Amino acid sequence: MYKEISKQLDAIGYSYDQDELSKCIIRAHQKTVIQAMLVEAKKRNLDVYSDQTKTILAAISAEKNITVDRAVNTLVDYINSDLNGREIYRDKLFSAALRISEEFHMVIIQNGEGINRVA
Predict the structure, then answer these.
(1) What phi and psi values does residue 12 have, to the nearest 5 degrees?
(2) What is the pLDDT of residues 64-78, one digit of tens each?
(3) pTM, whole model, 2 decimals?
(4) How far apart (Å, rounded) are the C-alpha atoms in residues 62 and 117?
(5) What gap in Å lies between CA 48 and CA 6, rounded to an integer?
(6) How far apart are alpha carbons 91 and 98 in whole angstroms?
(7) Rounded to an integer, what distance in angstroms lies between the CA atom of residue 83 and that of residue 21?
């Protein structure tokens, strides 16, 4: 999607910041993913106003290159899990979301791993 938009902008001579355009495209995709998960969550009577549910949705949408279908399927798997399964899912999702955060990256650098590790 990024390549298509940047080609179209180049074709009409519009100047843009590539990093900002990339961030906007990622944000737009995440909004689409979140909206689809909210629809599914409401269909399945999940309390979308609880902080825990919002955190689950945010963690799923934060996964790199997540598709709408994969996000909805992950949410459905979470909803269909028993209490123990949900706790395991939450731990996995929160850990994955934190591993892509700036704070996690800073810990890696401060720990001397930055040179040896690929993000």
Answers:
(1) -95, 5
(2) 889 999 999 999 999
(3) 0.72
(4) 21
(5) 36
(6) 11
(7) 41
